[in-house]
Amino acid sequence: MKHFSTSDDIRSLFSQAMSDMYRSEVPQYGTLIDLVRDVNAATLKADPALHTRLKAAGELDRLDVERHGAIRLGTPEELSLVRRMFAVMGMLPVGYYDLTVAGIPVHSTAFRPVDDAALKKNPFRVFTSLLRLDLVEDRELAARAQHILSLREIVTDDAKELIELAEMQGGLTEGQSHKFVREALKTFRWHSEATVCADTYGTLVDAHRLIADVVSFKGPHINHLTPRTLDIDAVQAQMPARGITPKAVIEGPPRRDADILLRQTSFKALEEDVIFQGKTGSHTARFGEIEQRGVALTPAGRALYDTTLTNARAAASQADAPAYDAVLEAAFTSFPDDLDQLRRDGLAFFQYRVGSTAAYKAETVDDLVAAGALVADPQVYEDFLPVSAAGIFQSNLGADDQSNYSANTNQDAFESALGATVIDEMALYAEIQEASLTGALWALGQDHLIRTAQAA
C-alpha cells in the first residue's frame, strides 16, 4: 500500500519553496521577512498576554510560516488548471472578489485551506485574479491579447501529469510530492523575456498596466509574497531604516485595540529589465507586502465595517496620509473596540475552548465566558478585502489614472471558468464557531445551552 504525503505537508513544502524562490528573485523581500520577524518578536515580548493567548489558541506556531501570494491569470483554462494544482495542496477557492468596483479589470478568489487543523498547520493563501478582456473597449486589442494568451502553457507537462496522478490515486507519495513542488514552482517564476514586442506592450500598458502584466509574459509570475505581522504600524515606521520605502497609507481599518479583518501595506513595485523580442525595456509588477490580520467579522460586523470605511474614504478623498489616518480613526470610533463586546454584539466570529471546569449549571454562554469556564478566541480573518487589494494593486502598478472600469460583477462567469463553485467564507467561520462551541459545552456538561447557542 502506498503512503501518501498529506496535502498539508505538500502545501508547506510549496510555500517554503515559493518563499525561497521569491527571496532570491526579490532581495528586498528577504529584508522584509527579517523586519517582520524582529517586530513580531518585540511585540510578543512587550505583550505577554498576547503571547499567552496566541499560544493557547494554537496560533503561535503558524505565525512565522504564514504567507499569502498573488497571481494574475489570463484565461479560463488557466484558472481551471491552477484550481486543480492548488487542490493537491489542500487549497480550495474561497470567496469571490470583484475588483472592477475599484477600476481594475479582474475578478478573483483566494485559494486556501479551509478546515481549522489545516489552517493551524500552514494557512498559505494565493489571491488569484482572472483578467476580464470582455471589459476592454478596444475589441481588436482584446482579440490580440486573447490570441497571445492562447499560445502559452503556464503549467509544465510533468506538473499536469502529477496533478492527474494525485486526482486518480488520491494523493502523492513523498517523492512525487517533491517533484510536484519543483514543477509547480515553475508556473510562478519570473521571466525577463516578454512574449510580445515593445510596441504591443506599450499598447497594452495604455489600456491598463495590469493587462500588460498578464498578457506580456510566459506565465503568471508571483507578484508578491506577504508575511504576517503583529504590529503593522511598527513595520511601516521601520521600513525606511531598512532601505525600504513604504506606500503612503496602510490599507484597511485604523490601528485598534481589537484588530479586525485585514490591514496591509507594501513597498513600491520594482522596475525590472525586460527583453521585448530583442529590444530592451522595463516592467513594474513585483513588490513586497505586509499584512496584519484581526478577527473575522460576521455579516452584521462586515456591513458595519463597509459602511464605516465608505464614509471615511468619502470624507478623506482629497486628504494626505496623516489627514486620512485621522479621518479614518475618527470614523471608527463608532465601531466597538473590545473583543468581548464584538462577541456579545454578534459582530465577530470566535472559536471556543474549555477554560476551567464549571461546577454549576450556567444560564447563558456569556455566563460561562465571564466565569472563565469557556474561552472565546477570536477567529483569524483568513481572507481578503477588495478595496484594500485594489489600493495595493493601484499603488504598485502606477494605475491610479487608469481606473476606468465600472463595477461589473459576474460571479457566474468566474465560477464557470473556475470549474467549481467558490466557497462562502462566512459559512466557514460560522461552522468553526458552532462546532467549537458545541464541543466545549458538551465537555463542560452544559449541553442544555447547545440549542440556545445554535439558535443565536
What does this structure look like?
- This protein is an alpha+beta fold.
- The protein folds into 3 domains: 7-294 and 382-423, Uncharacterised protein PF07063, DUF1338 (2,3-Dihydroxybiphenyl 1,2-Dioxygenase, domain 1), CATH 3.10.180; 297-346, no CATH class; 349-380 and 424-456, no CATH class.
- It is 48% helix and 14% strand.
- It is built from 20 helices and 11 strands.
- It has helices spanning 7-25, 27-46, 48-56, 60-63, 76-88, 116-121, 139-150, 157-169, 174-185, 198-207, 209-215, 232-238, 299-315, 321-331, 339-344, 365-371, 386-397, 411-418, 425-443, 450-455; strands at 67-73, 92-98, 106-112, 125-131, 224-227, 262-267, 271-276, 279-284, 288-293, 350-354, 374-378.
- It has a 5-stranded mixed β-sheet with strand order 2-3-4-1-5. The chain has a two-stranded antiparallel ribbon with strand order 6-9.
- Strand 7 and strand 8 form a beta hairpin.
- The longest helix is centred in the first third of the chain and has 20 residues, at 27-46.
- The radius of gyration is 23 Å and the shape is globular.
- The chain starts with 6 loop residues before the first helix and ends with a helix.
- The relative contact order is 0.15.
